[in-house]
Amino acid sequence: MARAKISLIGAGNIGGVLAQLAAQRELGDVVLFDVVEGLPQGKALDLSHASALAQTDVRILGTTDYADTANSDLYIVTAGLARKPGMSRDDLLATNLKIIRDVSQNIKRYSPGAIVIVVSNPLDVMVWALKEITGFPRERVLGMAGVLDSSRFRYFIAEKLGVSVRDVVAVVLGGHGDSMVPLPRYCSVSGIPLQRLMDQPTIDAIVKRVQGAGGEIVGLLKTGSAFFSPAQSAIEMAESILRDQKRVLPCAVYLDGEYGVSGIYMGVPVQLGAGGVERVFELELNASEQALLKKSSEHVQGAISSVTL
Ligand code: TXD
Q1: Is residue 238 classed as helix, strand or coil in its secondary structure?
Q2: Pair 150, 274 in one domain
């Protein structure tokens, strides 16, 4: 059976790590695209030089020509500016929207049947814009944010409790921003509810750190934002789609009445398989959790309403 074709739009910090992870997991042949001449070609060649050592036979092509991405099975879009200290994700909106318009039109032209994972910020608006511009069904356009936010949540819980991060389950819903909704009630360590293992002030401090984790990295790096963990997160989603694993992961999806919300993207648990978003799970939420999710959805709705496609 032919290998899958994965096109990575954006060969920057995240794009480069995506290409390496996709190749090392042999998820498919990789096309690394960017508008900066030489950047995708250089990174693709560098990665290919490592293929004998990484024991991978996938092909990695660097290009600035969208035609090379034709008939891709999956796109992962990281094209766009990243935050600098003092910037919010929303500050990137105007610039990155122009970029997403161009990306959307080319994806629609060259791979009308592809599944697309959007990473670019502000995530919830960028993924909504790509869906609207391409006209693809919601099953085939999703955003990466919740996998990263819940991975951060899992790490902080494991670090505090001194347990393996592998045994920590954590859930984050909502928009990818300060209004995201970590859900301690749905967190556990090997089935032991988190609230049996940690007092509320400790939980609250961890929730706050999860909400600010992206900004914490930007403040440390000063020249950009996180890229190892976002790339790892997007690859988890890509692998579940390309290998039809049916994983249940928190992803930004287009809601059509779920959680009482319609017409916007938000992070919720979904089943990911060959069909893309195959099922949306609705969690039972208490009054305070519902209020937080409503606030998050209103923030996303407000950002989307400010956009002219
Ligand atoms: O959880 C999440 N979703 C976020 C997403 C986590 C971290 C970073 N988040 C966002 O991803 C970040 O705010 C940015 O909007 C994107 C990409 O972050 P990255 O760190 O990879 O940014 P870089 O290194 O600046 O790479 C962006 C590349 C760069 O090489 C540009 O030349 C390229 O995008 N670019 C384009 N590629 C294709 N087409 C167009 N038009 C284009 N314009 C710029």
Answers
A1: helix
A2: yes
Pick the catalytic residue from 176, 227, 237, 259: 176
What are 223-241's pLDDT values in tens digits?
999 999 999 999 999 999 9
Question: CB-based burial of residue 196 (10 Å sphere; 0-12 exposed, 13-18 middle, 19+ buried)?
Answer: exposed
Is residue 22 a contact partner of residue 28, using CB atoms and an 8 Å limit?
yes
Q: What is the DSSP letter of 4?
A: P
Residues 301 and 159 in one domain: yes
Considering the domain architecture, whether residues 171 and 285 belong to the same structural domain is answered as: yes
Q: Is 176 a residue of the active site?
A: yes
148 CA: nearest ligand 1 atom: 1
Q: Residue 128: give the domain boundaries.
A: 5-143
151/138 same-domain check: no
Distance from Cα 82 to the centre of ligand 1, integer Å: 6
The backbone torsions φ and ψ at residue 247, rounded to the nearest 5 degrees and listed phi first, read -65, 150
- Whether 292 and 158 map to the same domain: the answer is yes
DSSP label of 186: G
Q: What is the tens place of the pLDDT at every residue in 55-93?
A: 999 999 999 999 999 999 999 999 998 888 887 877 888
Model-level pTM? 0.97
Given a cut of 90, whether residue 178 has pLDDT beyond it is: no
Q: Name the burial class of residue 281, with classes exposed (0-12), middle (13-18) and buried (19+) by CB atoms within 10 angstroms of its CB.
A: exposed
How many angstroms separate the alpha carbon of residue 246 from the centre of ligand 1? 28
